[in-house]
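Methods, example record. To illustrate the input and output format used throughout this study, we show the complete record for Glycoside hydrolase family 1. The sequence lines were provided to the predictor; the line carrying structure tokens was produced by it.
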Amino acid sequence: MKKFSNDFMIGAATAAHQVEGNNVNSDFWVMENVPGSMYKEPSLDAADHYRKYKEDIQLLVDAGCNTYRFSIEWARIEPIKGKFDKNEIEHYREVLEFCHHHNVTPIVTLHHFSSPKWLISEGGWESESTIEYFINYCHFVVSELGDLIPYICTINEANMGKQIAKIMKRMTSVNESDQAKKPDNADVQVGLNVNMKTKMEKYYRALGEAFGMDPRYIHTFLAPRTENGEKIIMKCHEQARRVINELNPTIKVGITFSLYDHQALPGGEESIKKEQYEDFLCYLPYIKEDDFIGVQNYSRKIHGPDGVVKPVETSRLTKMGYEYYPEALGNVLEFVSKHWHKPIIVTENGVSTDNDEERVEFIERALTGVHRCIENGIPIIGYTYWSLLDNFEWQLGYAQTFGLIAVDRSTQKRYPKQSLSFLGNINMI
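The corresponding predicted structure is encoded as:
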């Protein structure tokens, strides 16, 4: 494999709720712990990264990586509306300082799926008031920590509401007996178990009691959105970018999108055009003033005349159930570059597998695609593998293993995998 330039950012990513543990003031904590929860298990201590971040970042450094993407948890910073926790901001200051002391470039995400419980009770991601709340949170974080943050992703996978809506629509259109024989796992990338019909009523009743509101109006970030909800997400981004630029214009600001490699069978071209517009192209007006874009990709989708089709029986599948196809990343980067001419960071790309040799192969094949794109003039400036640690994969719990580092959750002992060394030494191959 050809080497990357010395200034290329290479490392791994995490999200606060998935690794830190005990995020008790968040909406996800509520959803995991209510009676009849749709979650396989609660997050609890997660990977205890809140206390063990130095050990984890040191393992990243020792492997040869130079970049760490992580999120600051809004529910920790503002556990009660309007009340900011200085102790928590100091925690993230220490994380950032540790990165800098070890020559690790931090890429900070301000919102990675989880929100404060109070925000959801105030109307969540369908309420105009969320724009103001998000800006207040961003203003506080950047005022306190901006000098330590070179890159900010305002919102992780801003298009996820649409993708979840598509999953739900496909789920309801599939005959339940067929679904029982072979679930449609093409969309499992988002980490959701959508086989929830039998438990839904009890679950939402419990959520309504927990959030103190009619369950019909519970709008978490990972809920299907209205068009107005989509606009609220992007207004949050635009206003956050404005505030960040005013407070510290040296910070590079972007947003991330979940993107598939769309490939057509005969007659599938129009289906592809529709999904590419909905998942990416419609957002371009909102991000034209951004400094970079975060691309997140895990697999491809095959389209026929009637839309997305399942992988063929002989397809190689990941532990998550979607197609093992590392070449998807390079193809997505080429697509994005036709519409976006500023820097690109691969903010997530990875594979869940119990066979680390498969992970090494995945990384090598994916980065071969990144190399090809750079050689073709596409301004890709970084790659952060998902994820640094085996972690809490939302509704799927702890069974999925994306990490470069295994975690024994009974002891919280770390076991670095060969894939971590492979990634860190990629420029020496």
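Annotations derived from this record:
The CA atoms of residues 186 and 322 lie 5 Å apart.
The chain has one domain: 9-428.
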